[in-house]
């Protein structure tokens, strides 16, 4: 999945506009409930189980960071 495709996935899931893949979700209007919705959608629709520790340490706080975590999760399956 490309960054542009993932940004579209986020926009559709969270009803938000991703302006910069390296900008934190919170700065792009996605709050904690939006993040929870996004995490559930990633796990359900993409079939990826995300590492809670990686999310907690901030590596998934941007669209590009979250896509990187998803790609890492795919590589370990």
TrEMBL record:
Residue stretches spanning the membrane:
none
Superkingdom of this protein's organism: Bacteria
Q: Which Pfam families match?
A: PP-binding (PF00550)
Report the SUPFAM superfamilies cross-referenced here: ACP-like
InterPro entries per UniProt:
ACP-like_sf, PP-bd_ACP
Which portions of this protein are annotated as coiled-coil regions?
Answer: none
Q: Which part of the chain is the Carrier domain?
A: 1-74
Name recorded for this polypeptide: Acyl carrier protein
